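Q: What structure does this chain adopt?
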Amino acid sequence: MKVAERVANLPPYVFAQVGRRIRELESQGMDIIRLDIGSPDLPPPDFILEAMYRSAKDGSKHGYGGYYGLPALRAAISTYYLRRFGVELDPNTQVAPLIGSKEGIVNTALAFVDPGSMVLVPDPGYPTYTLGTLLAGGETYAVPLLPEKDYLPDLEAIPDEVARAARILWLNYPNNPTGAVAPLAFFERAVAFGEKYDTLICHDNPYCDVTFDGYAAPSILEVPGAIDVVLEFNSLSKAYNMAGWRVGMAVGNAKAVQTLARTKTNIDSGIFLPIQDAAIAALTGQQEWLEARNAIYRERRDLILSGLERLGMQARKSQASLYIWAETPDGYSSWDFATRLLEEVGISIGAGTIFGKHGEGYLRISLGMSTERIREAMERLQRFAF
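A:
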């Protein structure tokens, strides 16, 4: 059979490859500590689970979830944005529920990218920004995220002809994989870039409620005029420990939101209704538990940082996200070090090159594993000869 070129030319999703190798090693009896995936290990609080249970027991809640999501869910998203960021959104035109933000990212490429169109992607960055563009037949231009720039893209360094051709500029703060954060002053420059070049600014913001040391992550929509050029993605995966539930949102410019929503209506049939009800509970219920959850992540962050320091490895002390961005020891490429660590001592971490060529020399370590297992991973690392 013939396979579509857009799929034949699509590189395999690296985390799927890593997962396959991990299963092989586990089948041989090796105990693997997974610090490669940013999936929360903690469950949602009981009030979210109970909302799901109640809804799932209702026999009327097992049909299609609705192409545009429940009105109550869109209202809950609007309420969340007003409470959390002081941003007012029209739930009928500026909010689109998603089956997880990853789905929305790919469908955004299908909605806005023509074959040959240019998309600006961060490097290092979440691979789906590039893969979605490739599926749509577009071309990517890598915008470097460098430590000397605090992992913020230098928008002024983008060639004018590239900027003028760009349909989308992808941003992501708090950042995956580096853990970097962005001030509102940077978002102001990004909005000005979108206005100047008629470029849709897509900001991926799933880690905004995973923060430490008193830091509060902003939304780019707090910038005056952002609503004219911005589509922001958010998710309950990281903030509410609901990664497997697959529920997220796209908000912002009404034309962009409605274009994405129209694309989705031709691809999916909406989110399972009990999951929508649970998301409403999560967004509108008590939020105090997030502080205690983040304290657990902060403890894990500090545990990893101290373990790396004892080995002479350098790493960023992140204020947000689920990740530590660490430098690879001398004499190793990112991929070689990560591979040896997996094969020899059973610790799986992300090679920086998974996220782009500017990730070479770095490793991404996830906080999404129990404190006890992270402590064990640091002990294994101490025994690793490098």
